[in-house]
Amino acid sequence: MATTRTANTHWEGNLLEGKGQVALSSSNIGTYDVSWPARAEQPGGKTSPEELIAAAHSSCYSMAFSHGLAGKGYTVETVDTQADVTFQPGEGITGIVLTVKAKVPGLSEADFQAAAEDAKKNCPVSQALAGVKNITLDAALLA
Q1: What is each CA distance from 55 to 22, 49, 50, 85, 102, in whole angstroms?
Q2: Whether the model pTM is above 0.90
Q3: Do residues 33 and 98 lie in contact, with contact meaning Cβ atoms separated by under 8 Å?
Q4: DSSP letter, residue 47
Q5: What structural domains and CATH numbers belong to the chain?
Q6: Which of 30, 118, 128, 139 reaches 20 to 30 Å from 63, CA-CA?
Q7: How confident is the model at residue 48 (pLDDT cuts 50, 70, 90)?
Q8: 32: Cβ contacts below 8 Å, ≥ 6 apart
Q9: How confident is the model over 74-94, as pLDDT tens digits?
Q10: Helix, strand, coil proportions of the chain in percent (round to 5)?
Q11: DSSP structure class, residue 6
């Protein structure tokens, strides 16, 4: 069954001095201020498209990783994923670094690394971001 999720943004003014709000409309869990300085300088209590992409990527990756290992008979105790999205004004998103740490009893290091790479490749958000030239992964299996 397909699902559609919706966010809405209202923007006022030009790019550099303007401001806006993005609403997570499907879940109705919040409206967040956005601005150019939050993107290109310091967040200052506001979010940016890149931070929202990082949230989407880290959560999707964690789900894909857990699902892939469950399909192979493993139980993931914990998985913590950080996504760092780099935005370069004038160039766009130039890179994403995924850092994952997970505790998976009985999983070898080699199988862990293979599962981590598979999740990176098959996570729907990774696939949607295929235009980003540099998406890297740093995966650590915890004891």
Answers
A1: 14, 10, 9, 10, 18
A2: yes
A3: no
A4: B
A5: 7-40 (no CATH), 49-142 (3.30.300.20)
A6: 30
A7: very high
A8: 21, 22, 23, 24, 46, 47
A9: 999 999 999 999 999 999 999
A10: 30, 35, 35
A11: -
